[in-house]
Amino acid sequence: MNRALPDRLRQRLDALAPLWRDGLPAMARGLAVGLLAVTLNPVLFALSVVSLALIPAAGLGFAAFPIVTSVVRWRANLSRRLAARSGVPIPVPYRPVPARAVYGTWERFRQVVSDPATWLDFAWLVPGAIAGTVCGLLAACLPLYGVEGMLGIAILLSASIDWYGYGIFWPIDNPVEALLTIPMGVLFLVVGLAGARWLTWIEATFTSYFLRPTPSSVLAQQVRHLTVTRADAVDTQAAELRRIERDLHDGAQARLVSLSMNIGMAEELLRRDPEAAAALLAEARQSSGLALADLRGLVRGIHPPVLAERGLDGAVRALALTVPLHIAVDVDLPARPPAPIESAAYFAVAEALTNVAKHSGASTAWVRLTHHDGRLAIQIGDNGRGGANAEAGGGLRGIERRLAAFDGIMSVSSPPGGPTVVTMELPCALSSPRTSPSSGTA
């Protein structure tokens, strides 16, 4: 019996663990939401109204309104981040600002005014202040109110006035009534922590109705994205065609021309100098072998045969063997991706490993390929010096452009001193089953 009680108590505490784990962060978020709503929203609404009113008056609003809008967007982005933590992700809907549209210019004013998200933010300030204040502060105050009762503050206060006064829940006339505030405090704490998650979720959902992108803005973003990725795909294709043409001209074509000339000279020398003709034919045979090797290398650069034969798993392992580093390869793909996705992923891995070998100073690296939620995920890491940056151009920027043609994304984590981790994702559905092993070290 003595052991049963602690076991039961432990089970009860374990059952309450999710309440504390989720309720306390929700309570903190509610406090942040409530304080931001009650302090910043009214001020920003007033500043927005004043800056709009100043537009006819000497044109001061042309410069003031974009500045106020930038502060409003900063405030709205804070709410988006808090909403995402409450389980309601809200994409950022703002149109990109051209480089020439600096503050104080007509371009900046026109860009801000023509963006529908500007007016949705403005429309959200007052309702957001009300919803944030009510839901946020309620999510924070209910648990705190329960803590006050649990600590028996009402008992202490009542004891100083001869058990007569007002407790936290009702007027207290005697010690028995004061003691009842403790179980009431426990009840308020539990209900408050459980309700904090719902209150913050309700506030985040309400906020999303104003701050999420409109259908027209989503369509406009998709059009801009497709325009950029199409231009990148066209540029990449043109660069690839130029590379193929250059390789053919400088390699196989030159060798084939030399082969044709040697065969022609051998024909002329065949009767009067058979030995010289035989030497030319031997040279022609050697040139034909070199031309064939050039063509094979060119084909591998377009679509490696190992990729077609062994799939992405085997192709990445074969690729890792060509890099002068210890590379651990871990592939967990239940089936093969479509051929275009396989090719893009293969060349992205190849470019990333080339960067590792040339620039990282690493002694070891690793490659991991997985598929989940309809996305092919690729992670490439090394223990090098770090400092890699896709914004600087070069190989990583080329990878990003290659993936963008398939709606893929790439992120780089490379602090000074390392390690460097490049993460890529490509939306795809797997098709044919694989035949190669799933993990190992290259």
UniProtKB/TrEMBL annotation:
Keyword list (alphabetical) reads:
ATP-binding, Kinase, Membrane, Nucleotide-binding, Phosphoprotein, Transferase, Transmembrane, Transmembrane helix, Two-component regulatory system
E.C. number(s) listed in UniProt: 2.7.13.3
| Superkingdom assignment | Bacteria
Q: Residue limits of the Signal transduction histidine kinase subgroup 3 dimerisation and phosphoacceptor domain?
A: 240-307
Residue ranges of the Histidine kinase/HSP90-like ATPase domain? Answer: 345-428
Q: Which reaction does it catalyse?
A: ATP + protein L-histidine = ADP + protein N-phospho-L-histidine
Transmembrane annotation, as ranges: 26-45, 52-72, 122-144, 151-172, 178-199
Q: What class of enzyme is it?
A: transferase
Carries keyword Electron transport?
Answer: no
Domain named Putative sensor is located at 30-210
Q: What is this protein called?
A: histidine kinase
Specify the species.
Luedemannella helvata
